[in-house]
Amino acid sequence: MKAHNYYIRYTLIIVLILLFPLCSLATVKEVTLFPHSAKISETAKIQPQCDKEKCRAVFILPPQTDLESLVISPAPERLAKIDDVQTKSVQVQDEVRIAELRKQIAGLENEKKKILSKLQALETQLQFWQAQTKAKTKTVADSYKLADAIGKNVQKSSQEKFVAETQMEKTDKKIKKLQEELNQATGHTETAWEVTLTLSGLAQNKIVLSYTYMLGGCGWHSLYRIEALPANNSVSFSWEAEIWQSSGEDWQQVHLNLATLPPIINVNPPDMPEWIIKPRKLYKAARSIDAAAPVLMQKEGFVEDEMLGAAPTETKNTTYSVWSLGQKNIMAGKRQRLKIKDESWPAEFLFLARPAINPQAFVRAQVTLDKPVEIPPGQATYVIDGAVLGKRIFSFAGSEGTLFFGTSPLVSVTSITLADQSGEKTIFQDKQTKNRQWLIEAKNSGSADIKLRIEEPVPQARDKRIKLNFRQNPEPVEKDHSKFVWLLDVPAGQKKTIQNSVELEAPNDMNIDFGWR
Q1: Do residues 159 and 206 share a domain?
Q2: Using one digit for the tens of pLDDT, what is the confidence trace for 33-69?
Q3: Is there a single domain that holds both residue 88 and residue 143?
Q4: Which residue of 105, 161, 181, 196 sits 20 to 30 Å from the alpha carbon of 115, by its own alpha carbon?
Q5: Taking all residues of the chain, what is their mean pLDDT, rounded to a whole number?
Q6: Is 273 domain-assigned?
Q7: What is the pLDDT of residue 1?
């Protein structure tokens, strides 16, 4: 029996060699994964078929291959020359694991057919016994016997039908699960690309080919965990890459690189518009835009992440960066997570408040790194002292950046209006005045001292005839065209206040919009 099996295997190998004399299984050497594609580098040792003048060599590429990206180079035979390249679609020769998936699906499909046949038979039996309820009997005893027979058989068939329907449901779920696994491994296709090369100048019986191509149905994305540790003046940064491929072939010990997506490059420069200065037309609807300013500032200040942004063995190309992860096994159809790095970033923590918008104080970490890094966009889980805040998109570029870690219920900064007075318009003075006074109160209800940064908008005159005079106590430590900034140390359980006032003077006949503040 063993000898017979050996003979069958030996015969099968001979047949395969005769049927596919030109083909050779290639070896994937290097993979560079982009977010939604990959650059594959393979080598293949092929036994070409030659006549008097030409030789032909054949190899197979995955179905998701971008054939226009294929680059082939004979090595090391320098005399060999590629005269022609032909491609065609052929049936996929599955790997053992994928072939086993197809076998399991086929077996379940046959089982499903048997269950379906059984259900149809049971349904026929039920219809038969239900039809007997209209049958006529000669005596009452016969009626009881018929009713008893109908009841027993209907009950039996109904129970068997219920069991069969349950089996059908389980079988469908198994088929669906296996089909999804097969689709992830093969990219929803059962064909591949056969590449036939016509060669000349070949001096040896065998040729080693190296070729690269772009492959779809694979990619990667970043997953981050960013934890604020204020007590240590640091931010813990963890970076993982989730990778996948559906080439239908497991990649064994390939050199894996992860690359960011090359940006879209404009070939032609944009047209330069004319610079025209002219009077602006004012519309009544313009006021509604100003009224929405607090909402817009709130979104820009706290909802959107600051741009922040490292790698094992990073190489920066012209349009993208590459991280080398060394030798890896990448299974077809299965998503894998690979650790890229764990780092501790030095950070300076404080609370940021903008009381003109709301009384909340946001935990802010100012990160400063030793050298610039580039971290691509990806989903990040934000954590502070072990408490998960939620998930947001994160990226980092450069050596400095700002991160926000939510609000603290123990810190509040409120704005209280003390006075809002307008002076009377007079004919003799030909001017109007307005005085607004408000108090900013910062309260620390926690048990630890905090550093607090308070930002207030600066009133900006859009007409040189409008005169503004500001008074603050204490004076802001920073001031630019758009905001005042105070930096305060607020001890635990204490309050601090800032007094503000702005005085306005303008022509008597000017209709002034005082804005949202």
Answers
A1: no
A2: 999 999 999 998 888 888 777 888 889 898 889 999 9
A3: no
A4: 181
A5: 80
A6: no
A7: 46
Answer yes or no: is 369 within a domain: no
Rounded to 10 degrees, what is the CA torsion of 75, 79, 80, 83? Answer: 130
Partners of residue 431 on adjacent β-strands: 507
Residue 422 pairs with which residues in a beta bridge? Answer: 434
Q: Is 502 helix (H, G, I), strand (E, B) or coil?
A: strand
Report the alpha-carbon angle 383-387-391, nearest 5.
Answer: 45
What is the spatial distance between Cα 494 and Cα 449, in angstroms, rounded to a whole number? 9
Taking only the tens place, the pLDDT of each residue in 131-169 is 887 777 777 777 778 778 888 888 888 888 888 888 888
Residue 463: CB partners within 8 Å, gap ≥ 6? 506, 510
- DSSP, collapsed to helix, strand or coil, labels residue 53 as coil
Residues 402, 404, 408, 413: is their CA dihedral positive or negative? positive
What is the H or E stretch that residue 15 is in?
helix 2-19
Q: What's the rounded Cα separation, in Å, for the pair 451 and 411?
A: 11
Q: Identify whether residues 153 and 197 lie together within a single domain.
A: no
Omega before residue 76 within 30° of 0, cis: yes
Q: What is the CA radius of gyration of the chain?
A: 38
The pLDDT score that the predictor gives to residue 286 is: 38
Same structural domain, 166 and 203:
no
pLDDT at residue 404 tops 70: yes
Considering the domain architecture, whether residues 414 and 491 belong to the same structural domain is answered as: yes
Q: How far apart are CA 35 and CA 222, in angstroms?
A: 9
AA letter at 175: I
**Beta bridge partners of residue 43, listed in sequence order:** 27, 210
The pLDDT tens digits for 486-498 are: 999 999 999 999 9
Predicted confidence at residue 184, as pLDDT, reads 65
Residue type, 448: A
Which sign, positive or negative, has the C-alpha torsion 179, 185, 188, 191? Answer: negative
In a domain, 35, yes or no: yes
- Terminal Cα-to-Cα distance of the chain (whole angstroms): 94
The residues near 342 (Cβ < 8 Å, ≥ 6 apart) are 236, 237, 238, 239
Report the DSSP pairing between strands 336-353 and 450-457. parallel
Q: Containing domain of residue 467, as a range?
A: 410-507
Could you report the per-residue pLDDT of 183-192, keeping only the tens digit for each? 666 655 667 8
